[in-house]
Specification:
Elements (H helix, E strand, L loop, with lengths): L8 E4 L3 H12 L7 E4 L5 H10 L2 E3 L13 E4 L6 H4 L2 H6 L4 E4 L6 H8 L5 E5 L9 E7 L5 H12 L2 E5 L5 H10 L1 H18 L5 H17 L5 H8 L5 H9 L4 H22 L1
Parallel strand pairs: 1-2, 1-4, 2-3, 4-5, 5-6, 7-8
Antiparallel strand pairs: 6-7
Helix pairs in contact: 7-12, 8-9
């Protein structure tokens, strides 16, 4: 296992994702003195972290310490902010750093061109549960990147959850559609069930629906049975569950609808990468 503790970190962009990584670093005993953040807009949450943990949050590259050279740089700005965020002054500072980008739609080729870091740039994508250290991430390594940097990148992403490696860069588009957007699909189903439950007159509908999802996931995570087996166990022949599933699976309904939705999300991801 690679140790992150002896490294210096630069977080470029401190929105929700950036803040999640800052918290993860601090929770894993990385000294606040080794964490530097470049962010022009200081959110209340970021200000709270700064006051409590004393990390360095700067609005300009020129405010970084003289001769500062980070070992790991996280690119977490919005796609339309990258060009202006990575100026010549910053390019000189990060020329030898490991650069990890979690920016949607920015391919390795473009990242290397903007940062002028051709040897140590990797592309990753993750999802919102990183805020709890329960994210699902994918990482793509271009040809030529050294093993030590691969291990360092994997260890960094592992701070916020599970890490998977993409065999090719195009896999990031399907990952984005399934796992990056995945939490939204689950939340939509939860929302829908809460509305239906409330309409049926049940009190505490939100808590009951959340508990149903949580209990079902924990049962699945126990590893004793697959999702298919657990579904079949609930579905008695001629019973209420079978009646409901006959609607959801009518003409391959739900699976087909999910497939269409994911394909559209994937298409949009490809479009963003092509712009």
């Amino acid at each position: 296992m690679v140790s992150l503790k002896n490294n210096k970190f630069l977080i470029l962009g401190a929105g929700n994702m950036g803040i999640s990584f800052i918290k993860a670093l601090l929770q894993n005993k990385i000294a606040a003195s080794k964490i530097f953040v470049l962010e022009k807009r200081i959110s209340p949450e970021l200000k709270k972290i700064k006051l409590k943990k004393k990390i360095k949050i700067l609005k300009e590259v020129g405010k970084l310490p003289k001769n500062f050279r980070p070992n790991i740089v996280l690119l977490a700005v919005k796609p339309n902010q990258l060009d202006s965020a990575v100026n010549n002054e910053l390019i000189n500072i990060i020329s030898d750093s490991l650069i990890i980008s979690i920016i949607a739609g920015k391919k390795i080729r473009e990242l290397k061109k903007i940062t002028r870091n051709k040897n140590n740039t990797v592309r990753a994508m993750t999802n919102t549960p990183v805020s709890l250290g329960m994210g699902t991430s994918i990482i793509y390594f271009d040809k030529g990147i050294k093993k030590q940097y691969k291990n360092l990148a994997r260890e960094f992403l592992a701070l916020v959850g599970q890490v998977n490696e993409a065999k090719n860069e195009s896999a990031i588009d399907s990952f984005t559609a399934i796992y990056g957007s995945g939490p939204a699909y689950i939340y939509l189903m939860i929302e829908s069930l809460i509305k239906i439950s409330s309409k049926a007159g049940h009190k505490n509908s939100e808590n009951m629906v959340i508990q149903t999802f949580l209990g079902s996931l924990l049962l699945l995570m126990s590893g004793n049975s697959s999702a298919k087996t657990l579904r079949e166990n609930v579905t008695s022949k001629g019973g209420t569950t079978q009646a409901a599933l006959s609607i959801l699976n009518s003409h391959n309904g739900l699976p087909k609808l999910l497939s269409r939705a994911i394909n559209k999300a994937k298409k949009r991801s490809i479009e963003l990468s092509s712009n």
